[in-house]
Amino acid sequence: MSDQDISSNANTRKLKTYQEARLQNIENLRKLVVDAAATLLQEEGPEAVTVRKVSQKMGCSTKIIYSLFVNKEGLAQQLYLDGCKLLANEFEGTPQAADPGQQMLNFGETFWQFGQRYSSYYKLMFGGAFTDFKPDEESMHGTATAMRQLITVISNAQQKGLIPEQYDTESVIRIFWASLHGVIHLYIGGHLGDVQSAHAVYKQTLSLIVNSLLPDHST
Prior knowledge:
The protein is an all-alpha fold. It folds into 2 domains: 18-69; 71-213. It contains 11 helices and no strands. The protein has helices at 3-14, 18-44, 51-58, 62-69, 72-92, 100-117, 119-126, 137-146, 148-159, 169-188, 195-213. The longest helix has 27 residues, at 18-44. The mean pLDDT is 86. This is Transcriptional regulator. GO terms for molecular function: DNA binding. InterPro entries: Homeodomain-like_sf (IPR009057), HTH-type_Tx_Regulator (IPR050624), HTH_TetR (IPR001647), MT1864/Rv1816-like_C (IPR025996), Tet_transcr_reg_TetR-rel_C_sf (IPR036271).
């Protein structure tokens, strides 16, 4: 095969159909819009994320954003899924412990830090900041994926008989998550004083939950 034939074949492989190029451009544009919305979310909070403000930041018409996401809720879903990825990354960086109770404490602290470091994402995902947005099946799957390590620790502890049999995995997750979220939500609402006071209440709540779920664990 001549060099010309090789070059021709390489160029052919690089060619894309109009449909492929169009889909790639749409996906790139969607990412740019989500990035702009994420910047507004982090810099100005959830209330700043409107189609109009995102379009202004992008320098495009609102029609383009509506064509990509249908409405504000469609954009909120993408931000929610991005928040799930951030939460997953935080859990990935959590210190590891052989003792399941200590590991649950570590994951609980990670959840608090996520709420502090990404407070706007937290409010969007768990605080009802977008009143018309309700997580759909894809969003809930993203949440479960983000919490995969916590679910694994609890499931393994149950299999070893460390957690009382009357609790199933889903119930334990809900108890753990709801209790910790309650403290964070009260803090966000201004009911628990400054961040140090709220964090102290959070750690006490976390310790009580772990000790109740794993009676033989000592914190």
